[in-house]
Amino acid sequence: MLGVAMRILRRRALAEEAVHDTFMQVWQRAGSFDPQRGNARTWLYAVLRNRSLNILRGESRTDLVEDFEPMGLVSDEEGPEAVLLRLSDSGRLKSCLERLEPARRQAITLAYIHGLTHGELAGRLGIPLGTVKSWIRRSLTSLRECLA
Q1: What is the mean pLDDT of each run of 10 residues along the chain (148 residues)?
Q2: How far apart are CA 121 and CA 108, in angstroms?
Q3: 2-59 has which fold?
Q4: Alpha-carbon torsion (51, 57, 58, 59), positive or negative
Q5: pTM for the model
Q6: CB under 8 Å to 140, separation ≥6 — which residues?
Q7: How far apart are CA 145 and CA 139, in angstroms?
Q8: Fold of 65-147
Q9: Is there a contact between 89 and 59 (Cβ–Cβ < 8 Å)?
Q10: What is the 3-state secondary structure (H, E, C) of 28-59?
C-alpha cells in the first residue's frame, strides 16, 4: 500500500500519512464494506487512492505556505505585470484583466501564464489556499462575463 501511495504522492511522509489515514478510515467504517460489491483488497486500495488524491489536491494542507521558498518554487521569470504589458494594447483580454483588482490579476496570470498550482499561489502570495481558490474562480467568472 505504501508503494501505491508513493506513486501517487511522490513524498514518503505524505504516502505514510495516506496509508495511516486509510487504515483509520477502514477501521472506523469496516461495517460499510459489502463483500457482494467486491474484494476487500480492492476496497482497501480504493480508499487509499481516494485518500491520496485528497492529499494531493491539498485538502486543508497549508505546509506549502511555510516552506515555499526552501522548496525552490520562487522563480526569476518575468512577473505577471510584465506579461500583462506585453499583451496587445487594443486586446479585449488586456482590458478585462485590467478591470480586476491587482492581487487577483496577479493570481490569474501566475496560474495561467506561469502554471502555478493553487497551493503554490497561496505560498507565493502568502494567503490562505481557500482564498486563492475563490479569487481564481471569481476572477475567471468576471473575465468570462467581460469577454462575452
Answers
A1: 87 87 91 86 89 74 44 50 57 82 88 80 85 90 86
A2: 10
A3: Rna Polymerase Sigma Factor; Chain: A (1.10.1740)
A4: negative
A5: 0.44
A6: 108
A7: 10
A8: Arc Repressor Mutant, subunit A (1.10.10)
A9: no
A10: HCHHHCCCCCCCHHHHHHHHHHHHHHHHHCCC
Cell of 124: 507565493
Residue 24 is predicted with a pLDDT of 92
Dihedral sign (CA 84, 102, 123, 132): negative
Residues contacting 45, CB < 8 A, separation 6+: 1, 4
Domain regions of the chain by residue span: 2-59, 65-147
The owner of cell 495561467 is 112
The pLDDT assigned to 14 comes to: 82
Radius of gyration of the chain (CA): 20
* 3 state SS of 25: helix
